[in-house]
TrEMBL record:
PANTHER family: PROTEIN MGTC. Gene3D superfamilies: 3.30.70.260. This is MgtC/SapB family protein. It is a multi-pass membrane protein.
């Protein structure tokens, strides 16, 4: 049986650390929770565990240790998955940590070329499939016009003395969400209240764009009422009436 030499140990360990670091560079560049050091450490830990089993010269030990590494990474990955409203965040990060551990296992087993190929595959998934996924998310449904836009109105009420401040805040929130108002109207209600209505034309995900605006405005204590609704399209109504 071939015994693990110190040189073999260092080469395999360096390969595992390097491959994990390469994966972590891409994650760090995109400012993800698990970046350069985390992925490098995960790959290092997986490499060291399997190297230990190789060093003790137990025939079945490397396979058993590799299975334990997979289970352990499952607990570590669960710590980076966070619930965000109706969805979750961190699934890609958890999957990347899992892949870093797999790369470390390959390096520790002496499959250095396979470890490098696995690293390139993980990087390709992040760098190539990311824009492809965005294209699929932005693809229009069958029978829809990708350039079509809808009109929506953001309505809020505020104290009259805060009208100037809230008006500026409204325009700032719309601009931050990439929306340009096509109309802005202010009307004084009874008492000391002022009603502001901003009309915008939106292409794409209407709810997502307007909920960002509402979230920013709702933080201001001067806003007493805040909501948005879609405007009726007069040309569409006319077409439906003539049909």
């Amino acid at each position: 049986m071939h015994s693990l030499t110190t040189l073999d140990f260092l080469i395999r360990l360096a390969t595992g650390v390097g491959c994990g670091a390469l994966i972590g560079v891409e994650r760090q560049w995109r400012a993800r929770m698990a970046g350069l050091r985390t992925n490098a450490l995960v790959a290092t830990g997986a490499t060291l565990f399997v190297l230990y089993s190789e060093a003790v010269s137990d025939t079945g030990s490397p396979t058993r240790v590799a299975s334990y590494v997979v289970s352990g990474i499952g607990f570590l990955g669960g710590g980076v998955i966070l619930r965000d409203g109706a969805g979750v965040r961190g699934l890609n990060t958890a999957a990347t940590l899992w892949c870093s551990a797999a790369v470390g296992v390959l390096a520790a087993s002496g499959k250095l070329t396979l470890a490098l190929l696995g690293t390139l595959a993980v990087l390709a998934v992040h760098l190539v499939l990311r824009p492809a996924g965005r294209l699929l998310d932005g693809a229009p449904a069958a029978g829809t016009d990708p350039d079509a836009s809808v009109r929506a109105t953001v309505h809020l009420e505020c104290e009259r003395r805060s009208e100037t401040h809230i008006r500026a805040l409204l325009l700032q929130a719309l601009t931050a969400s990439g929306l340009a108002p096509t109309g802005l109207r202010a009307r004084r209600e009874g008492g000391d209240l002022t009603s502001l209505r901003a009309t915008v034309a939106i292409s794409g995900d209407v709810a997502h764009a307007l909920e960002q605006v509402v979230s920013r405005l709702s933080l201001d204590p001067g806003v007493s009422d805040l909501h948005w609704h879609l405007e009726e399209d007069p040309t569409r109504t006319e077409r439906e009436a003539l049909a």
